[in-house]
Amino acid sequence: MDERLKDRAAIVVGAGSTPGETMGNGRATAILFARAGASVMAVDRRADSAEETRKMIEAEGGTAIAFEADVTHADDCRRMAEACVEAYGGIDILHNNVGIGTGGGPTDLPEEEWDKVLDTNLKAMFLACKYVLPHMEQRGKGVIINISSLGAIRFPPYPMLAYSVSKGGVNTLTRSIAMQYAHQGIRCNAILPGLIETPMAIEGISEQLGMPKEDLIRMRNEAVPMKHMGDAWDVAHAALFLASDEAKYITGVLLPVDGGLTCKG
Ligand SMILES: NC(=O)c1ccc[n+]([C@@H]2O[C@H](COP(=O)([O-])OP(=O)(O)OC[C@H]3O[C@@H](n4cnc5c(N)ncnc54)[C@H](O)[C@@H]3O)[C@@H](O)[C@H]2O)c1
Prior knowledge:
Layout: E1 9-13, H1 25-35, E2 39-44, H2 47-59, E3 63-68, H3 74-88, E4 93-96, H4 111-139, E5 142-147, H5 161-181, E6 186-193, H6 199-209, H7 213-223, H8 232-243, E7 254-257
Parallel strand pairs: 1-2, 1-4, 2-3, 4-5, 5-6, 6-7
Helix pairs in contact: 1-2, 1-8, 3-4, 4-5
Bound molecules: nicotinamide-adenine-dinucleotide.
């Protein structure tokens, strides 16, 4: 049995999943953390989706609670941190998975869309960290994992300005927190998923682009040096490693999980 996260309390933000044929990165990570022995707080703005994750974890004999929060709101982040401390006695791991995407460049992207993407993908991570870090500081330990994107460091096939900028911000947020808290036993790393087969990416983008799902899947598989997309478990396994003591000397890292896409010329 995997005991890498035994006796750890983990908040997974965005632990629900966009409905679809596969599973989102946050849900897979919540499940994997629980399999490794963590007590999980599955947080999502969609209560039903967080609840579904909780049920999946409990069906496997794991420990989880579901918590409804919109992490773009400071008060929800404060409540989330307090509820985890109350339920599990502290917070060992904060996994920030929430992210939304939208296409568009500077001239065609509506201002409200820019604000929504930056608030959801970047400000929400700042707020989650803001209210969780004091609890970690108090105990002199903790791990934060932020889900960024390859879109932060490579230009996507079509302009996604707000998304790319927000994820670039996530990278900087990660490294800044890592540096500020390294001497206090708190680590902070980011994962940069490449092309992952999740419902948000497949069902979401095919609808956005008006492209049949099969064509999108073929195109995404073809773009990867390994010739196939990753799945939510690939991201979750990287998160589990970073959350565990196996990564105790790793902080401030931006880890691509991308089937070699970053190396492609
Ligand atoms: N799928 C990919 O190809 C891919 C590639 C690169 C990066 N990523 C990143 O992975 C992360 C997860 O992607 P996914 O495909 O699993 O998406 P997903 O939509 O399945 O999961 C995200 C969850 O976050 C929740 N959420 C959204 N806004 C929220 C808010 N304000 N407060 C609380 N919860 C909120 C959603 O309800 C959803 O359940 C995102 O950050 C995304 O940018 C995905």
